[in-house]
Fold:
Amino acid sequence: MSGTPNQINTSLHEYFLDKIQIAVIGLGYVGLPLAVALSQKYLTIGFDTDHQRITELESYVDSTNEVTTLELEKATNLKFTYNSDLIRSCTIYIVAVPTPIDAFKRPELSYLLAASRTIGQMLKKGDLVIYESTVYPGCTEEDCVPVLVEESGLQYNQDFFCGYSPERINPGDPTRPVTAIKKVTSGSTPEIAEFVDQLYRSVITAGTFKAASIKVAEASKAIENAQRDVNISFMNELALLFDRLGIDTQEVLEAASTKWNFLNFRPGLVGGHCISVDPYYLLYKAESVGYYPEVLLSGRRINDQMSIFIANKLVKLMIKKGHRIEGSRVLILGITYKENCPDVRNSKVVDIIKELTDYGIITDVWDPVASPTEVKKQLNIELITQLDSQYEAIVLAVSHNLFHSLDWENLKNPNTVIFDVKNIVPKNLSSGRL
Structure:
């Protein structure tokens, strides 16, 4: 992008349409759908350091299943590369790299800062850098901008500008593509904020919301997922309580849901790279300013212990049916962090498997949605490819659509214990559920 802030205030389509070339940095679940959407209006280059990922995309194959082969074939304005030299001519850089947590549950910003260094080395006067990666309030301007300044030698908000538009995707849900989800936008100056908003509004059919500042936009993303985390943790706490009281949690929720303003959250495993991660970013920032949140932390503690509860409950149900625990075989249905999505990052199903293994139980995992190669690489677990009915117990851990049509009568034998984490098995067939 080139031009002065006053020129930037000019209508996007009147002044900049023929000057825009966008680079999307990071082509995962967030970056790729966004790049495809932007390419409908602008010349776009998708950049990723994963050579295999680029090779697949150039062959119109998306291993995340978020973009179809036909959509990739139609995206004629979109090119892919792992060579950073090929994005030097771009005027807008959009960063959509992972922001996980480390082993101590602290923000892991290495991907974000590496992307900032790469961009900084090619930044030109008038360029715009927009961050989409989930961060804590202040991260863009306090952590990323100094890297851009150091690497480029340019002045922030004089020579180059920044924006923040938090990722909003729903992996595994084809009914809600990125263009159908309202987008929050922001910019480092009022003029840039308007420009960023116009840019996204030109491809997001659901519309946009221009936040008051970059910090506000960052905070909005953090609390979106933190709110869900806290609400689910309340349901999980109720499930733990009702288990001790001998009450079926699902029956309680069905009754409570008859009230018009009851929030219909459900208990379950909270994994993945959003809901189970983002609260720690907010927690980190809160503690850095001397505030120690109680609700956020208690919610995380409850949700993190649900895998152990499920494993222990399953063992108790097996004992009641007379099964010998050590050496018994248990089938785990699903290893991904959510339904109909191949992503296994931070899957809490792994914790169930670890706990059962500590009991001496042999576990088989079947998940036709997940990539066997990725599961082996990331989790060191071998997926099975065929099912039999010789299991002492079955755990329905993920509600993939194809699991809804399983023939449970043939899958189980008379003594098989079925624990339904996702509440999709007919109640008369399951031995327990959350």
